[in-house]
Amino acid sequence: MKKKNKTTRRDMIKKGMLGAAVIATSPVLGSEASLAGESNQRAMNSLLSGKTAFITGGARGIGLAIAEEMAQAGANIVLFDIASGQIPHVGYAVATESDLQSAKAKIEALNVKCLAIKGDVRKLDELKNAMQRTVSTFGSLDIVVANAGVTQAGSIEEFSPEEVSVVYDINVSGVIKTTQVAAPIMKQQSSGRIIFISSALGRMGNELFPIYASSKWAVIGFAKSAALTYGKDNIMCNVVSPGLVRTKLADNPYILSKMMPNDPAPTFNRVSEMLKPGNPINVGHLEPTDVAKATLFFATDATAKVTGEVFDISYGSTARNIG
Ligand SMILES: NC(=O)c1ccc[n+]([C@@H]2O[C@H](COP(=O)([O-])OP(=O)(O)OC[C@H]3O[C@@H](n4cnc5c(N)ncnc54)[C@H](O)[C@@H]3O)[C@@H](O)[C@H]2O)c1
Question: Residue 210 to residues 151, 159, 176, 252, 282: CA-CA distances in angstroms?
Answer without folding.
Answer: 10, 10, 20, 19, 25
